[in-house]
Amino acid sequence: MNRRLLSAPFLPIVFFYMWVAFVGSASGQETRGQIAGRVVGTNDAPVVGATVTARPESSDPDTFQAPAAQAVTDGTGAFVLPDLRPRLYRLEVRAKGYAQSEKPIRARIGESPVIALTRGGVITGKVTDRENRPIIEALVRVMRVADAAGKPVPDPFPAFYPTVTTDDRGEYRKWGLTPGRYLVWVEGTDSDYRALDPLEGDIPTYYPSVTRGGAKEVTVTEGGETTGIDIRHRGQRGFAVSGRLAGVPGDSYVTLELLDAETHVPMVTANKNPYKGLEFTAIGVPPGSYDLTAVAYLPKGTRLFSDPIRVVVKGRDVDSLTVTLAPAASVAGTVTLAPPEKTLFEACGGEPATSVEEAAVELALKKESLLTTFQGPTTVPMETGAFQTRGLVAGEYALAIAPPAGWYVASATEPGTPKPKSLGSLLLKKGTSRENIAVTLEFGAATLKGTVSNLPKAVEDVEKLRVHLVPLDEAQVENTARYYETTVAPDGGFELKNLAPGRYAVVIQKKDVPAGENPAFPVALDPAKRKLLRDAAKSAKTLELTPCKTFEGVTVEVKP
Amino acid sequence: MLKFFLLLIFAGTVFTGADAQSGPKPAASPPTASITGRVTHDGRPVGGIQFMIGPARTVSKPDGTFRVTGLPPGNHSLRLFRTGNYIEGDRESSILGRTFTLEAGENRDGVEIRLIPGGVITGHVRDRENRPLTGVRIELFEPSQFPNSPPPLDVGTQVTAKPFAVTTDDRGEYRAFAIPPGRYLVKAGRPKQPSVFHPAAATGNDATVVEVRSGEVAENIDIVLDATPPTLFTVSGRLVDAVTGAPIADETVSLIPRDPRPEISGGRTKTDREGRFQFGNLPSATFIATVQTAGSNGGIVSYRLFSDPVSVNVKGRDITDVVIKAKRGVTVFGKVEVVGATAADNPANWLVFGKPVNQKDGIFSVRGSISPDGIFRIEGLKPVPFLPWFAVQGSATDLGVNIEVLSIFRNGVDVTETGVELGTDPIQDLRVRVRVNRGVLKGELRFENGDIPPPGRVYLIDQNSETVITSAGTDERGRFLMKAIPAGTYRVRAGLGEFPRSNGLAPTKPAVVTIPPTGDPVTVTLTIPKPDAEGNPQ
Q1: Per-residue b/e over A60-87, b at no fewer than 16 CB within 10 Å?
Q2: CB contact under 8 A, A276 and B13
Q3: Does residue A294 sit in helix, strand or coil?
């Protein structure tokens, strides 16, 4: 199972963001601008009265950023977030009756995002004990396991499973849920010091009255109410898994997870109280085999991780474990905006007034990790261009840069990288840091829009297709920043933005992603696969991209 | 991040399996105690009620009886599991709660636990067009003791209901339960908007009081809330160095509402290269702008960078000229020496703090770090006189350990009384001598005629400064127990009720006790005149 691999906001090298326009004005002066967009519901219908809030995307995950602007949508669903300085913003949308957006919505001034919302659904029911008496203040959790079409979705970090507590009648009502299929369960808590939980230490009971293996999925429809999801608590006492942490300050906040050893589904989570030294205890653990992992959250985005420990719970508590945490890896460097060529200003609609804070840096992990936080947050360079992403687990990463509108990645290098070759994948070992990555962005990016013909009939086969742009300029064939990759829409359309001008071949390939690997990890970072792409490029359609222009109408055919 | 923070706040001690009827495993020494009794409601037995006494979890049998064994000697409080009820004296429903002070080997019987079923308030919140409003926060208050007073005196004490945060659902419906019987004002509020009391009153003075009876439901307690989006404003300004006037980039500034109200929130943001900052979406209110940075020790208070608070009055207009002048904190290094240390007194398990000597300079301690050899470092202290203090990780009362600072020397000069003067430069030469105290005081509170008084509070008072060192509640037998007392001679006084120092009841005559640093308990009996039937001293 691709646990969490898909859940985080992966940033495929270029196609995640919507680039619409840049702000044209005098260079060197800060230009304030606006984000004007629309919020729509089903069938593009306007969502009226939605609140849209823009917060600066933070380079420091521990700092809660105050809103920079807020607006309410009008009768056409339109909103305007005015007077914003150039940088990357995260948009939050709240609308009565609608579910929260599943993916983070990011935008820059000058962009016109269209934000699609789905009407939320409701799950209601009652929680009772074995004698059919209501259980008051029981913690009910729901987890979406499949979307409305039945396609599995990855599980998020357990702390973010939606929760609700039962009232004095044992009844609960969870609303604002994204349509799809859900697991619903009751579990004990150790978190409320004011009122003790009688279910504390019990094995979680899933709807209707079973353990995880027999859980029945609950369907939530758009705007619908699914009633009668009653849970009879089994009241089975679980076991305790306890021990001591090493390699971490005693006052750290640490979360521990017991993952099913086979499926890697998180079964039990424990939080170590920062004021209680280094001891930890996870309770309510069902019999089984687990991988125990731990993550420590230190200030300024610093993280410590443990290696997984195999724990077998069979008929008794497990104690005296030692879980050793070690520093996470980190990546740092600088993003630079190269001075724009004046000769481009006419073709590009004027001189850009771009801030480097409009760029975003993400690190996409290739293979899934058992650890709760397996990739860094989105990092926004400071005004100096410096960026640092901490808290990375060991593994192979792709450096994914999202340039501002009109710009493209010219190179991404480290000292010693021969030019014009750019970085391949980054192999990060435990606790290591790569601190001198230099990313250069150049002005004059092109856009490509096209269509894929002879599409396979099965939707899952279309989802495996990737359109690649392969550089034909001999000097650029080893520059990984010149290789582009995108998915194909169900109707065959595709679009690539922030492209370096030049000659390219358009190659279409099927991408078979092994289980446990990130489907967004770029193919071209693998030298062998890059060579295969170049071989395929010899017989592929070619095109010339010119600065600031959109190349439209290209069609590529899927060979049988 | 918010969730992370909430988890951090509420992460509690995990109870890991004391047997329901037998309590925790008996310690080898000294002998354990037991409690036997029954749970009642209006004099009738109630079964199936789960609660804890100290570390032991138990449940009442169908005839209401219970028995808890294996309790270590000491103070044990009563805590009720989630049921929608209250227990008289449950720690949740009173500040002190009900405490049992047990002797080694004692078998306490005849304890009665009286159950009070909570009430329910339910209703809808709608806008003026009768549309349901979602996510509206509901709060309960006792009616004001001062009628027709302006806010905040228009309401009395806020009362905690369940669930922890009562809000309206997608139908605009709310349901607050486990409410102690009484009379309440019900307030509805949304961020950045004025609150409204049931049924549609702007202040508590005009609100309708809701009567809640034990075990009953008060229905249709509806509220009409103006849902018109309020006009919002921005606050912007600069962060500069208080000495040089230079802008300070990439630091976090905070905007905090001066009057803490749930509908008003400020925020935090980082300064740009020119030290500029901006907050948007603020309602008309008065805020405090400040800079305060976390030090190397993270979310704990630190004054690596700090400022005097700047008052910002947002009253119907944007504010653009706020200047926050930042000062820089100082780092201190030192070494702690333990007098008469034992193997158990390892500084590796200690915490070190620095606190301003004068309250006007701040009331918060800054936390530092300490190594096993006693070398400590405190980063981010305000440049004002301060005193270091030490604690053992965990609750001092539970551990029974207190670390007393005996002397502080800087450059060979005794600064124990005056505190350590700080300038702008780091300090590297502090020498602190400490003693580890395990002092114990126990005893009884009695009426002068020998009767057992209702629960009260015993205070340990410093002979010289007249300050209260610590206090402890008395249990239903008048017993009390204090641990972790610094060695010394003290006066001990006691009074009845939860706040005997302020409730006007006659205190006991003071007794004088001398506490050794060892754990050898000192015993004292205090007597108090028995009040007459109307509560007046006789």
Answers
A1: bbbbebbbbbbbebeeebebebeebbbb
A2: yes
A3: strand
Contact predicate B185/B157, CB 8 Å: no
A-B CB pairs within 8 A amount to 165
CB of B288 closer than 8 Å to CB of B255: yes
- The CA-atom distances, in angstroms, between A537 and each of A50, A145, A470, A476 are 47, 39, 7, 14
Strands (E), A482-558: 484-487, 493-499, 502-510, 541-545, 550-557
Ramachandran sector of residue A320 (left: φ over 0; alpha: ψ -120 to 50; beta: rest):
left
Assess A487–B contact: CB distance below 8 Å, yes or no: no
Q: Is B4 close to A61, i.e. CB distance below 8 A?
A: no
Chain A residues 290-309 within an 8 A CB cutoff of chain B: 297-300
B178: closest chain A residue by CA: A168
Alpha-carbon distance of B22 to B26, in angstroms, equals 9
Which of B3, B8, B78, B82 would best serve as a mutation to test chain A binding (most A beta carbons within 10 A)?
B82
Residues paired with residue B276 on neighbouring β-strands, in sequence order: B238
Q: Distance of CA A379 to CAs A375, A481, B76, B157, B378, Å?
A: 11, 19, 50, 45, 31
Q: pLDDT (tens digit, 0 to 9) for every residue of chain B, 538 residues total?
A: 333 333 332 232 222 223 333 344 444 567 899 999 999 988 899 888 888 888 888 889 999 999 999 998 888 888 777 666 666 655 444 444 578 889 889 999 999 888 888 899 999 999 988 989 988 999 999 998 888 887 778 888 888 788 878 999 999 999 999 888 889 999 998 877 788 999 999 889 999 999 999 889 999 999 999 877 677 788 999 999 999 999 998 888 988 888 766 567 778 888 887 899 888 778 888 999 998 754 434 445 678 888 888 999 998 888 989 999 999 889 999 999 988 777 667 787 788 899 989 888 877 788 888 888 889 999 888 889 999 999 887 665 666 788 989 999 998 899 999 999 988 888 888 999 999 888 999 999 988 888 888 878 888 988 888 888 888 888 888 899 998 898 889 999 887 765 555 444 456 677 899 998 888 899 999 888 877 766 565 5
A427: CB partners within 8 A, 6+ apart: A395, A396, A397
* Residue in chain B nearest A273 by alpha carbon: B11
Radius of gyration of chain A, Cα coordinates, nearest whole angstrom: 25
Question: Cα dist. A45→A114, A116, A335, A499 in Å?
Answer: 11, 9, 40, 33
Query: CB-based burial of residue A59 (10 Å sphere; 0-12 exposed, 13-18 middle, 19+ buried)?
Result: buried
φ and ψ at A344, to 5 degrees?
A: -85, -15
Out of A160, A191, A198, name the one closest to residue B11 (CB).
Answer: A191
Residues B531 and B538: their CA atoms lie apart, in Å, by 5
Check CB contact under 8 Å for B170 and A97: yes
**Residue entry with tokens 């010899």:** A538
Tell me whether A361 touches chain B (CB under 8 Å).
Answer: no
Q: Structure tokens of A216?
A: 């029945």
Global pTM value = 0.74
The answer to whether residues B139 and B184 touch, using CB atoms and an 8 Å cutoff, is no
d(CA A203, CA A236): 6
Q: Which two tokens stand for residue B187?
A: 């307030």
Residues 6+ apart with CB under 8 A from B350: B370, B390, B391, B392, B393, B403
> Quick count: other Cβ atoms within 10 Å of Cβ B249?
16
Inter-chain residue contact B4 with A253, CB threshold 8 Å: yes
Please state, in angstroms and rounded to a whole number, the distance separating the CA atoms of residues A190 and A72: 39
| Residues from chain A contacting residue B160 (CB–CB below 8 Å) | 194
Question: Bridge-partner residues for B412, per DSSP?
Answer: none
CB distance B11–A271 less than 8 Å?
yes
